[in-house]
Design a protein that fits this description.
Layout: H1 4-12, H2 17-30, H3 44-87, E1 97-103, E2 106-112, H4 114-122, E3 125-130, E4 133-138, H5 139-148, E5 153-154
Antiparallel strand pairs: 1-2, 3-4, 3-5
Helix pairs in contact: 3-5
């Protein structure tokens, strides 16, 4: 039976089993019949739920890609920092010549000695940026850094660039040892 009140009424003799069965049958008949869904057409709520799930999945996918890209860039940056720390050329107190160079639209200054300056001009040394300062690194290390992130390194070509034929000052070459 399942209903404790019906069982109590039966024990007390207030109702008969036939009356209990009739009451249960009336209760079943009174429940509104749910319309049967057609198998081919889902209702609006299901469609909205599927659409919301698809939007959320796309958003999550984009967010995951963004996080992966950030972690990849961070790993590359750490790798570059390690390359610079391991291969940087020590500059002692003898480095009194201020070598000025352009990087990312700004003029920067690095103190070197005459030998280092000539190696930079010849393209044998590169300048790499680490934690807001610049360090000298061998050409091979500078090229490795440039492959990973070309904004972190300054390289000078040993060969001079060909001048623009339209440049009115093309015949006036700037000397390499000019100090500004």
């Amino acid at each position: 039976m399942g209903n404790p009140f019906q069982e109590q009424f039966l024990k007390a003799g207030l109702v008969t089993e036939k009356q209990v069965r009739q009451a249960n049958q009336k209760k079943i008949k009174r429940k509104p019949q749910q319309p049967k869904k057609q198998r081919g057409q889902p209702d609006q709520a299901t469609l909205k739920a599927r659409e919301a799930a698809a939007r959320k999945a796309e958003h999550d996918r984009k967010l995951n890609l963004r996080k992966q890209e950030q972690s990849r860039k961070k790993a590359i940056s750490i790798e570059i920092d390690q390359l610079i720390r391991d291969n940087r050329i020590e500059r002692g107190k003898a480095c009194e010549i201020g070598y000025q160079f352009e990087h990312r639209g700004k003029i920067n200054k690095l103190y070197v000695d005459a030998k280092m300056k000539q190696q930079i001009i010849d393209g044998k040394l590169g300048i790499a940026r680490i934690e807001g300062r610049y360090e000298l690194v061998p050409l091979s290390t500078a090229q490795k850094i440039q492959q990973r992130n070309d904004q972190r390194v300054v390289l000078f070509d040993a060969l001079a660039e060909t001048p623009d034929p339209q440049d009115p000052y093309a015949e006036y070459q700037v000397p390499d040892d000019l100090v500004w």
